[in-house]
Amino acid sequence: MTERMSDADRHAQGMTTRREVLGDAHVNRAETRKDDFTADFQDMITRYAWGEIWSRPGLDRKTRSCITLTAMVAGGHLDELAMHVRAALRNGLCPNEIKEVLLQTAIYCGVPAANSAFAVAQRVLAEQG
């Protein structure tokens, strides 16, 4: 069982993890765009997605990236997929491993979803060099 953390500690841990996974540039852009309308949402995802889930010790970040890529394809979240392809590279996946994840999604999420995902990933990988 994990120890209880205050919301402030969870937010701090989440921000550290978020920056490590997504990169400072992405997080800085999100923080710059934050306003009264979106501040609560940004706080929630920082505390829960990044401070709770991505910070848990049970899975390594490569595995979490594989799961997240699959979830993005399954949900049709292509803008988020691009962000998480970049994160997957940062978390140590190579382009061939990303390709294998996307091939797997063709079977379980459908060929049209995987086709769109391959187009997004191809664009991101070309941008990343």
From TrEMBL:
Domain Carboxymuconolactone decarboxylase-like: 40-122
PANTHER family: 4-CARBOXYMUCONOLACTONE DECARBOXYLASE FAMILY PROTEIN, CARBOXYMUCONOLACTONE DECARBOXYLASE-LIKE DOMAIN-CONTAINING PROTEIN
The protein's name in its UniProt record: Carboxymuconolactone decarboxylase-like domain-containing protein
